[in-house]
């Protein structure tokens, strides 16, 4: 990849949300904002190799996108009023009063997460408009077809426009009931950065994890006593702490039990543990993110995988299942059960999830590992093959391929 291509890729990761948010503020239309931002990046692809990368790529992209947006509005309207509206939107208007957090991207998130939209639609729309994820990446995150996801996002933008959903951070009294949807969005954005779903992207996208953490910190300043905000921040920090140890030099995923724990970010681990302890001291019933953070705290507290307190991990998963009985949570619980009660017990629990997780690569990867531990090499190989077929990330594919190739030929 050339220096210019790297600059364009970096600009997309770092500036997409800023450009879309800026255009949404000016024009009040997500379709206009998204299309103009996409056209601006397409123009960068054409011009930067010849003209050079501008000193301030974000400013260049924003200015170009603004011009594209005005051109689109003028093309689509034959009424002078619309022309005037477009020009007024481009002029420097006095800044309007902002909410408690003065961040255009956060305002864009709350717009995309409005309760008038279904929860999955809110998340998908924000992944596209704020995270800048492609439609295939978002579809993989939801385990649905790309065409269906595209229709969902199109309908969501139309509903926002028709219902005149405001582009703003909610008032203080409305924030608690709105924040859960935002947290779900940020967690999915973080997950896409933690381990990208696309086969042609970097396996880890630090800009996305950093953005999710940054916005979660901002929300925490607004809701300092909200346990789930603190829990999500702790969860992100404890996962992010392991990032540099998660992918080997050859691009292969490194599983938790094989990671160099000395390479973990000690400062992030310390901060994450502190947040978990603060929530325990609060004495309030924990929510989903707080329990997930506590599970990660147990893992990151062990200096060696053999020191992991698996009984505590399973107990925390039992608590989580009472809040979230999803098959993915049940799968993760079964993986922990294998360390306490053995692979055969865990395999029985996992096999009961087949109908719900047949299209999920991690389900087949977990089965493959348990079958390997039980000496059932042929069955394990078949499960690895299925996991490799379904995995979208090159780092995961490399890891699963190595594990499969290490199997002996003994069958039972």
TrEMBL record:
SUPFAM superfamilies: Sigma2 domain of RNA polymerase sigma factors, Sigma3 and sigma4 domains of RNA polymerase sigma factors, TPR-like. Residues 109-160 form the RNA polymerase sigma factor 70 region 4 type domain. Residues 77-86 have a biased composition (Basic and acidic residues). The keyword Transcription regulation applies. Residues 18-78 form the RNA polymerase sigma-70 region domain. Keywords: Sigma factor, Transcription, Transcription regulation. InterPro entries: DUF6596, RNA_pol_sigma70_r2, RNA_pol_sigma70_r4_t2, RNA_pol_sigma_r2, RNA_pol_sigma_r3/r4-like, TPR-like_helical_dom_sf, WH-like_DNA-bd_sf. Residues 178-278 form the DUF6596 domain. Residues 77-96 are annotated as: Disordered. Signal peptide: none annotated. Transmembrane segments: none annotated. Belongs to the sigma-70 factor family. ECF subfamily. This is RNA polymerase sigma factor. It comes from Tenggerimyces flavus.
């Amino acid at each position: 990849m050339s220096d210019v291509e790297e600059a364009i890729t970096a600009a997309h990761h770092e500036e997409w949300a800023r450009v879309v948010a800026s255009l949404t503020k000016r024009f009040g239309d997500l379709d206009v904002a998204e299309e103009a931002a996409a056209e601006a990046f397409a123009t960068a692809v054409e011009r930067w190799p010849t003209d050079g990368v501008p000193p301030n790529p974000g400013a260049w992209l924003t200015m170009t996108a603004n011009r594209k947006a005005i051109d689109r509005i003028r093309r689509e309207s034959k009424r002078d009023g619309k022309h005037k509206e477009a020009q007024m939107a481009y002029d420097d208007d006095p800044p309007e009063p902002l909410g408690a957090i003065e961040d255009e991207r956060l305002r864009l998130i709350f717009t995309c997460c409005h309760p008038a939209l279904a929860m999955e639609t809110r998340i998908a729309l924000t992944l596209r408009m704020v995270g800048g994820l492609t439609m295939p990446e978002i579809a993989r995150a939801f385990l649905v077809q790309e065409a269906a996801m595209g229709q969902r996002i199109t309908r969501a933008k139309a509903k926002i426009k028709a219902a005149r959903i405001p582009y703003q951070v909610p008032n203080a009294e409305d924030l608690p009931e709105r924040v859960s949807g935002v947290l779900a969005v940020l967690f999915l954005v973080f997950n896409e950065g933690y381990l990208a779903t696309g086969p042609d992207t970097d396996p880890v996208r630090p800009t996305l994890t950093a953005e999710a953490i940054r916005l979660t910190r901002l929300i925490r300043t607004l809701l300092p006593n909200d346990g789930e905000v603190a829990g999500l921040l702790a969860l992100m920090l404890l996962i992010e702490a392991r990032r540099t140890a998660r992918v080997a030099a050859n691009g292969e995923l490194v599983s938790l039990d094989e990671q160099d724990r000395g390479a973990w970010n000690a400062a992030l681990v310390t901060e994450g543990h502190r947040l978990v302890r603060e929530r325990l001291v609060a004495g309030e019933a924990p929510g989903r993110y707080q329990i997930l953070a506590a599970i990660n705290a147990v893992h990151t507290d062990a200096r060696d995988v053999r020191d992991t307190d698996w009984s505590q991990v399973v107990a925390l998963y039992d608590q989580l299942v009472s809040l979230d009985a999803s098959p993915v949570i049940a799968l993760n619980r079964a993986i922990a059960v294998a360390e306490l009660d053995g692979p055969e017990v865990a395999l029985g629990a996992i096999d009961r999830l087949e109908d719900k997780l047949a299209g999920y690569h991690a389900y087949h990867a977990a089965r493959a590992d348990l079958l390997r531990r039980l000496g059932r090499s042929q069955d394990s190989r078949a499960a690895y093959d299925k996991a490799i077929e379904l995995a979208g990330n090159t780092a995961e594919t490399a890891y699963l391929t190595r594990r499969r190739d290490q199997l002996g030929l003994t069958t039972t």
